[in-house]
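The passage that follows is intended for readers who have already worked through the single-chain material. We present the inputs for a multi-component assembly, then the predicted structure in tokenized form, and finally a short commentary. You are encouraged to pause after the input and sketch how you expect the pieces to fit together before reading on.
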Amino acid sequence: MLACVRPQNITFSFLRASDILIEFLEVAIHNVLYVRNIYPTSIFVRRKKYGVPVQMSTHPYLNEYITECLKTIKDLLTKNEVRKVTVVFFDEAQIPVERFIFDILDLNRTLNQDDPYFIKGEEALRGFCLKLAMTGSNLKPLPSKSTFRVQLHTIEAVSVSLAEEPRYQDFPWIETVEQETEVMNPSIVPIRTLDTGFHKLQVYVEESGEK
Amino acid sequence: MDVQSVKLYLQNIEEYVMDEDKIVTYKWLSKNLGIHVNTAKQLLYTFATEQKINVNLTYLVGGVLCDGTGCKVQIVREEDLEKAKAEFKALTSEHVYSVQKAKILPDLGVLYAVDCHKRDENEDGKRLSAITCSHSVLRPQEEIGRLRLKARAATSTRDAKRWPTGHAPSKKTAEAHSNSEVASTDGSKGKNGTKKKELNTGIAAMFAAQTCKTKQGGPNEKPKAAENSSDKPKTSSGITMFFNRQTEKPIKPSVSAPKDSPSSGLSPKDSHGNEVDASCASEKLKEKQEGNSNKKGKVSSNVKNSSIKNTEQKWGGGKGKRVNTDEKLLPAKKRKRIVVVSDSEDSSDDDVFGRDGGDAPDMPPLPEVAPHHESDTDDVIPPTPEAELKRGRKRVRKMKDKTYVDEDGYILTCKEYVFESCTDSEVEQEKENEKKLSKGNCEQFETKKSESVKPVSKEPPAKKKASPQKTKQATLMNFFKKSI
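Having made your guess, compare it with the prediction:
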């Protein structure tokens, strides 16, 4: 599903900006999973995105999960209702030990005219992928038998609609409790701040001090 | 490399690796510091040996494989280095590829991302190579600008040679006016001279003439002046025709009173030239009236003048023939030219009609003469296509102007597509020219004078007769040669 993003027209709609972000999130999530070694590396293959090789999972269940998550996120992004997207890693006791946070600071509605061909944007995303690969060495390894989840931080109205709208029933989103969200004694490892023309994204890692 | 700079570079590397947590490849380092890649490799190695435990390395090894399958170039991690080296029978290269702080680099693909420079099109990779040439120095911007201007000037002069533009029109218009004022006979030679002078600018003038056609509409009254004016329109039309067909050439020179016909003799040449002129003039209806008056004056015989006038008038769209000839010669350009020609023709047609209506009282001689010659022209015109079709060697669909008089006595010129053979048309034109000469009609504009005309002024009539469909080149040469 990795597709090359090429904005064809100058008049970028809000919808398009969210598409780019979704693609980036997909790549990021796959790479995070690869870097954290939560799954055996054999399920990952090297694919090309933004002109650089990235790792992508080929496991169908995993891919389906990620895709469904992103579908919902996309719907909400178009309405600018998503504040954060997090990938949380839990240890055996279901305590979050690590969080990769994609903080969506701003999602501009109009494409920046300076970069109609998304060149700078791609470069920024490329840089993120590179940096992400490096962060693996800075983090302590995950404990064995860890699991992960994708979490959304949004407004309350959205959480209600997610629960009630029929199209989300196949892939239900459950409201999390605080224990499943916050990391104990977090230490923040910044990864990167992306500022493309039409979205600002901050990516950092919250690591538990007690891993 | 001096010690100071080495220290500086090592500091930089430390910054990149330790503080910014970058993966520093030798390529990236060389580009960033502006040093040779070998220097970069050595620096990285030095740095790594200094830091040792803090950093991790990747190596590039290459060589001939032991198992004889060929050669391989590989990037390996530090820990895999020895194992990789063992695979090679002959190790051709082994050097540090990158330095990074990360202990584990799970995917070496990221190294590609480091060196991936998508937007370095303008980067001069050769700048850092070890092979240098003292003579190859980048030119400064001023010099480049100067050279560009030179090149532009050269191309413009080259173009100007073939199709001079600009100042010519003014001259031509002035001359046309002066010509029109002068009486026919004496003017011819003098005008020829002037025309010749104008030769070089004539073509340019033609261009300008096209634009100035409308402006020159005024002094059309005199039949004498017709020739001059006809020259002008001829030139302008001639030029267009010229572009389209080389056959135009004889017309053009005559039009601008240049080389060929005008300069040569009076009677036969003039007649021929008149014919040519007439044809040229006919192209530009706008200038027709002017040209008629002007050019006809130039032409030797009054009859011819009148005939020219008539033909001019009749052949408001007289370009047809020329178009045909041009078409033959330059099929590629033909389309372009035809459009231009047709536009001018159309406009000229319109103008003529308009003028005919408006200036009827002003120019009694023209309409009077016209009817007489219509029959002649009508007689002369049809045979050409017929004759051409007879042989049918190389059929070309040409647009020809058919001039005829309708029931109201108005001269109408219609453009028709006629299939005629290329090669035959030349012969036909010769015949036509002869006819013209005999009849005193200058309808056959097609410039037969191609190569024959080249010999220039001496035998204009002969040339005219025998002038085959020339190539543009020939007509051009004629043009220039005729000019004194």
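Commentary: The first strand of chain A starts at residue 44 and ends at 49. Residues 14-35 of chain A form the longest helix (22 residues). How closely did your sketch match?
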